[in-house]
């Protein structure tokens, strides 16, 4: 009874602030509508004990309640995220700093074992799970929409070509891809440039499928896929890429991460880091408990640094920043398409994973779309090289990044470059 009285007061307070296309259905059949508009989102509260999630409506509390099955939420994911964000914004003001402190305490160590377990938790769901909503090449990072009209597969191919152009990859050079995913970038680099590539990942599922794809493409003589921590890679490479991986490194470890890239980079080599960043200069999580939700359910031990910190840590690692590009708009579009694909293939995806993980990814993808659209998080491509080099080795302009792409090498070219 006490919680119901609190709910009545909460409902009156919320309705005075918000007009939402939301209906709340209680265990006794009572309905609470938040506007005259037809509800696009319905929250079902199956028991009085579940009221506590509504009465403290942070993104973490409501997201956890949904994922754990304590409440039921129906509607399109984008509508669900918009409604829940409005509730959290109206009901919370102090959780952001608290969540950031919790995340820093939990995610500070980043041992090899801890990092491997975190990667396996996120990526070793099943390859079929990711195949159901990614593009055919299974590129799980921000696409590049040159005009905004591209389909996802085209935009992902353009992203890879954009990266290869930025690092000025030349035929026959060596390339290390840190966090190679399912191998799309190294396969493209070998196909177009005859580059001799090493891709490393900590995900067994990714490594197995990437090796199969390399073999099917006839590129085994040029591409090696390793199940290996980047800290254990040896040798020198003309070019190094890291796409969607450094979020797992940890803010405190970033100088050492970039120092290792510097050690692996050949003289006059070029590296590029493509990764998510916080738009909060203190590296705090996304507002209203969203960062805490992602840390618990999606990316254990993941940490986002501000762009300023990334650039400082690159310099501390002995690298000179040469080019920085913001792709926030591109990632908002990418996540929106992933969400559409996820919902369009919902029945198939339910068969590929358990209900809890389905709910996690359902709200996570839509939540990321919202976060990028509202500048809570961003994504940058940063091109760098060894600090202190003769400036004559650096191009005069960025024109080379946007020149007409090189033609695909013939099979004879590929054999010659091996």
From TrEMBL:
One Gene Ontology MF term: methyltransferase activity
Family: Belongs to the CFA/CMAS family.
A Pfam cross-reference name: CMAS
Name of the molecule in the record: SAM-dependent methyltransferase
Domain DUF7884 positions: 10-93
Keyword Manganese on entry: no
Active site: 368
Domain of life, source organism: Bacteria
Keywords tagged on the record: Lipid metabolism, Methyltransferase, S-adenosyl-L-methionine, Transferase
Transmembrane segments: none
Any one biological process term the GO annotation gives: methylation
């Amino acid at each position: 009874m006490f919680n119901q009285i609190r709910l009545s007061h909460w409902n009156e307070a919320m309705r005075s602030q918000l007009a939402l296309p939301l209906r709340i259905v209680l265990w006794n059949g009572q309905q609470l509508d938040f506007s005259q508009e037809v509800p696009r989102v319905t929250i079902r509260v199956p028991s009085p004990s579940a009221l506590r999630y509504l009465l403290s409506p942070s993104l973490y509390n409501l997201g956890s309640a949904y994922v754990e099955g304590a409440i039921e939420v129906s509607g399109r994911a984008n509508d669900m995220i918009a409604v829940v964000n409005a509730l959290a914004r109206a009901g919370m003001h102090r959780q952001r700093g608290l969540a950031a402190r919790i995340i820093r305490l939990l995610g500070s160590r980043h041992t090899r074992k801890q990092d491997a377990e975190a990667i396996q938790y996120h990526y070793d769901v099943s390859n079929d799970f990711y195949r159901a909503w990614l593009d055919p090449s299974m590129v799980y990072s921000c696409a590049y929409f040159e005009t905004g009209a591209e389909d996802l597969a085209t935009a992902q191919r353009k992203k890879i070509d954009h990266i290869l152009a930025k690092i000025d990859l030349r035929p026959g050079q060596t390339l290390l891809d840190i966090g190679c995913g399912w191998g799309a970038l190294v396969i493209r680099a070998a196909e177009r440039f005859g580059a001799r590539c090493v891709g490393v990942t900590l995900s067994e599922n990714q490594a197995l499928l990437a090796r199969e794809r390399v073999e099917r493409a006839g590129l085994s003589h040029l591409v090696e896929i390793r199940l290996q921590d980047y800290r254990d890679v040896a040798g020198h490479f003309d070019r190094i890429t890291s796409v969607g991986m450094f979020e797992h490194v940890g803010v405190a470890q970033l100088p050492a991460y970039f120092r290792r890239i510097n050690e692996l980079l050949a003289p006059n080599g070029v590296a590029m880091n493509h990764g998510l960043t916080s738009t909060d200069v203190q590296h705090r999580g996304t507002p209203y408990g969203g960062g805490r939700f992602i840390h618990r359910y999606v990316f254990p031990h993941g940490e986002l640094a501000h762009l300023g910190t990334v650039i400082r840590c690159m310099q501390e690692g002995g690298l000179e920043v040469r080019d920085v590009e913001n792709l926030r708009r591109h990632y908002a579009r990418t996540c929106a398409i992933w969400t559409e694909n996820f919902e369009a293939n919902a029945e198939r995806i339910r068969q590929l994973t358990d209900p809890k993980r389905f709910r996690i990814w359902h709200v996570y993808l839509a939540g990321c779309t919202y976060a990028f659209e509202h500048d809570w998080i961003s994504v940058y491509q940063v091109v760098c090289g060894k600090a202190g080099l003769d400036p004559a080795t650096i191009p005069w302009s960025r024109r080379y990044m946007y020149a007409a792409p090189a033609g695909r090498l013939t099979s004879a070219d590929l054999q010659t470059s091996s």
